């Protein structure tokens, strides 16, 4: 579904991604793990069309989308739940969700999708007319996921979805990710909680200094001594 080959990204003279290659099969959860500064968010931003790579290719369903603008990437069916949630704080919950359906692929089903999002997150329906900035962190994360779903994605990239959330809310976020995957959505998961990520991922990649250092099934990496020592403290 998604194929990345030899991707290089620079911020000025600083190289953030160095020859990154990975693939994402349809219907799977693929985890991308690594320490801070490893290049995880840079990779997500490059796939999303926010950053332009210097070399390499990104193909989605066989089409070359390397360097495509972010609005075009979203309209192809690649959604993103950004790090830090990034809701529009002065807009209501409903208005935030409606913004997500502005892409052409989503407009025809906007009303039906809104009902589906409210069914998935009943608390958002309860707070439909409340300013998004007054929501709790967990509610804002629900809103960020809901807004992404409004765009009718087929693949969703989650960038640190548990960051700054209480443990009980983190469990709810991961349950939601699993539920979306069971519905047929493909998931790319960048997450600081390495243990949980690897447990739910069918495939995983470890990034170190902008390079893919290791790859395998989630279970293989979870059992690997290097991963356990470096990221799990075991």
Quick description:
By secondary structure, the protein is α/β, with parallel strands linked by helices.
What attributes does this structure have?
single chain, four-stranded antiparallel β-sheet, 234 residues, Rossmann fold, alpha/beta
Q: Can you walk through the features of this model?
A:
The protein is an alpha/beta fold and 234 residues long. Helix content is 38%, strand content 26%. The chain is built from 10 helices and 10 strands. The protein has helices spanning 40-47, 70-76, 93-100, 110-120, 122-126, 137-150, 167-182, 194-200, 218-223, 225-231, and strands spanning 2-11, 14-24, 29-33, 55-60, 63-64, 78-81, 155-159, 186-190, 203-208, 211-216. The strands form 2 sheets. It has a 6-stranded mixed β-sheet, with helices on both faces. A 4-stranded antiparallel β-sheet has the order 2-1-4-5, covered by helices on one side. α3 (93-100) runs parallel beside α6. The chain starts with a strand and ends with a helix.
Write the layout of secondary structure elements.
Blueprint: E1 2-11, E2 14-24, E3 29-33, H1 40-47, E4 55-60, E5 63-64, H2 70-76, E6 78-81, H3 93-100, H4 110-120, H5 122-126, H6 137-150, E7 155-159, H7 167-182, E8 186-190, H8 194-200, E9 203-208, E10 211-216, H9 218-223, H10 225-231
Parallel strand pairs: 3-8, 3-9, 6-7, 7-8
Antiparallel strand pairs: 1-2, 1-4, 4-5, 9-10
């Amino acid at each position: 579904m998604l194929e990345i080959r030899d991707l290089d990204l620079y911020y000025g003279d600083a190289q953030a991604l160095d020859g990154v290659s990975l693939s994402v099969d349809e219907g799977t959860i693929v985890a991308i793990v690594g320490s801070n500064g490893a290049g995880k968010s840079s990779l997500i931003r490059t796939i999303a069309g926010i950053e332009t790579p210097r070399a390499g290719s990104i193909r989605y369903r066989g089409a070359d989308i390397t360097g495509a603008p972010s609005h075009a990437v979203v309209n192809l069916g690649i959604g993103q739940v950004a790090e830090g949630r990034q809701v529009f704080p002065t807009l209501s919950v409903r208005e935030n969700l409606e913004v997500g359906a502005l892409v052409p692929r989503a407009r025809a089903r906007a009303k039906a999708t809104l009902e589906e999002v409210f069914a998935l997150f009943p608390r958002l329906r309860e707070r439909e007319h409340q300013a998004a900035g007054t929501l709790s962190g967990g509610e804002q994360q629900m809103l960020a996921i809901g807004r992404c779903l409004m765009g009718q994605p087929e693949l969703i990239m989650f960038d640190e979805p548990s960051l700054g959330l209480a443990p009980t809310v983190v469990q709810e976020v991961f349950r939601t990710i699993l539920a979306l995957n069971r519905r047929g959505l493909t998931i790319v998961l960048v997450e600081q909680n390495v243990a949980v990520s690897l447990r739910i991922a069918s495939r995983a990649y470890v990034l170190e200094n902008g390079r893919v250092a290791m790859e395998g099934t989630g279970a293989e990496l979870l059992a690997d001594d290097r991963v356990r020592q470096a990221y799990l403290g075991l």
